[in-house]
Amino acid sequence: AGETKFAACYLATRVLLVLLYARAYRHVREACATIVIYLAGTTAGATLWALSLPLHGTGRYLLWTAGILVEAAAPLVATRFGGNVPLHLDHLPERFSYSSSWCWANRSPPS
């Protein structure tokens, strides 16, 4: 139950981020090429988190990992294909630290 609540709350933050990227896309024309990449990565990641909600165990954790990796790839893709908007490396750790620390803290003990 706690893991489902965690996933649902994390998914809610991703949905809010998708909405913010969509808003930025409409209003910051000079960064549209970059925003589209972040929007796609966040949407794909959120989809994977949504698909994890009915699952339990390994399947859920694999989808969480895939979602985080997809989102982590977006800044790298945006650096190559996103136009002239620079990558700010100082922001990357904060984007993923909450979910990775929770997963680490709640891992199963070795058998």
Question: Can you describe what's shown?
Answer:
The chain is mainly alpha-helical. The protein has helices at 2-27, 32-52, 58-81, 92-105. Helix 2 (32-52) runs antiparallel to helix 3 (58-81) and helix 3 packs antiparallel against helix 4 (92-105).
Mean pLDDT: 83
Number of strands: 0
Low-confidence segments, given as residue ranges, are none
**How much strand?**
under 5%
Write the layout of secondary structure elements.
Layout: H1 2-27, H2 32-52, H3 58-81, H4 92-105
Brief rundown of the structure:
Helices cover 77% and strands 0% of the residues.
Q: Keyphrases for this structure?
A:
4 helices; mainly alpha; 111 residues; single chain
